[in-house]
Amino acid sequence: MGMINKMDVAATQSAFREDLLSGKTAIVTGASRGIGAAIASRLCEAGANVVLCSRSAESVGQIADTLRSKGYTTLSMAADISQKADVEGLIEKTIEQFSQIDILVNNAGITRDTLLMRLKDEDWDAVLQTNLTGTMYCTRGVLRPMIRQKSGRIINISSVVGLIGNAGQANYAAAKAGIIGLTKATAKEVGARGITVNAIAPGFITTDMTAQIPEKNQEQLLELIPLRVFGSPEDVAAGVCFLASDAARYITGQVLQVDGGMVM
Ligand code: NAD
Q: What pLDDT, in 10s, does the model give residues 102-117?
């Protein structure tokens, strides 16, 4: 292929990307930083209207303002996904503003790491309540509008830890494995309604969550990753954007690993 043809292809692809999700409305939970902020930004670039939530209105508002200043349509609000009433409010406000919900990205998550022998009940409860029950609240909440529309995309952020476990993360691994079961059961329930439900299992992604890992351990971890680099939030966002797009219309109930080949 000559140089000009190559450029034509690139131009077509970028034009295609900008309207990949135009006219769609997406909710991204935990969008104030890290992976959630990158997902919100990527969905905006693909043309979606994006509703960003996190527990703090201020931090998520800043991300939404930055996106708005670039000309994208966003709405930000404080919503703690572990609280049913907050999730109901999030969904109501989204419908009020945009009349529809096409894409839900369940990204919000927390860790409370410690060995199981020392795990306090409240640290088990907090991780399960946010990571798993919160994901269920949001998923259940969008089903009615999505069924009415006869279409929808639900993308749950799990983790490779939910597939292979990790010492010191019994609560987190259980919640992330639970998300995979929730994904598959929901995919079976709503497939006939035109709704797809998939999970993404990131490996090590450079964010606030992984910054706490000591440098020595980070080097050991890199040896386990065939691609020899940690992932970026944008790598996860690219997977979300694909699963949210028409290109993924025949994919449901799957777990897409974005982990540099760490787990295979
Ligand atoms: P982060 O801690 O940087 O960001 C988490 C986001 O979730 C923040 O915006 C936070 O405010 C929000 N949040 C937390 N609890 C919430 C609640 N109850 N209600 C609403 N929002 C809440 O984390 P991150 O690294 O960007 O991780 C994002 C997701 O990806 C999480 O589900 C995490 O488990 C998952 N994940 C991360 C990695 C990684 O290496 N960073 C790997 C695998 C999976």
A: 999 999 999 999 999 9
